[in-house]
Design a protein that fits this description.
This protein is α+β, with helices and mostly antiparallel strands and 428 residues long. Helix content is 43%, strand content 29%. Helix 2 (25-51) runs antiparallel to helix 4.
Length: 428
Amino acid sequence: MEKETKKHLFKGIAIAALSLGLLILIPIIGSIISERTRFQTDVIREVSEKWGAQQTLYGPFLLIEYRAPTLGDHQETLYQRKQAIFSPTLQTITGNVATTTKKRSLYHVTLFNTDLLIDAQFDPQEKLLASLNIEDEAFVISKKIIYGISDTKGLSEELSLADSPNKTFALDDNSILYKIPFLSIEYTKDEQTPTRIKLPLKLKGSANLKFLANATSTKVNLSSDYHDLKYIGNYLPDQADQDKEATSSAWNIYQPLPINTTKIDGVALENYTFGIEFLELNDFYTKVDRSIKYALLFIGLTFIVFYFLENIKNLKINLIQYALIGFAIFLNYILLLSFAEYVGFTLSYVISSCATILLIVSFTWKISKDKNSTSTIFGLLFLLYALLYFLLELKETALLVGSISIFVILAALMQFSIKMTASNKENQ
């Protein structure tokens, strides 16, 4: 009896070591996923560069360039060239973001077209100059409206003011802010800076669209035909309605410290951004990567059940056959990844899971010729693959549901082991 007990113990230790040894295949599968993900990223970047990249809209601002008197070393009056930017007191952005999907190679890339109207109200010029201590307009060098677009290649048409079509924006070669391309309209000395502008904007882009909460009060109302949006940046919308057909979002942001400054280089505009991100519907690489994290659970539970059946039914399963079963489980992830690129994740999961279950179940039948053992393995694998799919579809509650499910499975296996021990005693 002691010899038999030691035999089972050594077999159990060998199976456990084999399970851990098979885990070296996880980094290999992970590297394949990383390689395919990089390829997908390159494809998306290539399409985005030709259409329009991620878009961030900066402004509008009023830019005033002026001469400020200072005292020199000998108390003489010198004049220093300075710039100041002023944000609107009220900025309203309304419009629609329509999406389209382009297929390139194996992947679909989500792109968008905006049809926006930007309505901005500024303080009058006298108030702005007074804040700079400018009493004589002769000290003013230039006055401009500036508007920043992170990728100007996405502009679909000329950018001009709605109520003054002859006032069109041109790329400003003045380096106003580091790495941000700005367009501007310059006003002559005889013209007053506008107190209100309306700016229609038709822009192409991809991945995400962000705005700048630079005004004292910023209101944004967006509608989109894309139903899987993620809100990004420093502000969440006050209203967000999403259904299967479309979404609508509204922000109302009060900014007690709007961006009005002469220290332009010190402004961290990213701290004022917010917007929407268009989630990729076919992000199957993330799901496959998540599924690999359950590989040890699959192998461990499958091997445990085979070990129990081997002892209860007196089956002869050697370590090589255990290893082949483990390889079959890992091959499932390769099949899942391969098919997902062509037919999507759900159908790929069904195909790869059915193929793997059929392979292991038929293998079990060949070595056992026992209906109960074969049915037990089929039931276990079906339950595991169904549970894994359920967990992959969940998000926030995946950990809770997964831990409870594993606890229940572990309890069932403990009861199974008790029956196995009792059965062995009866046989002896």
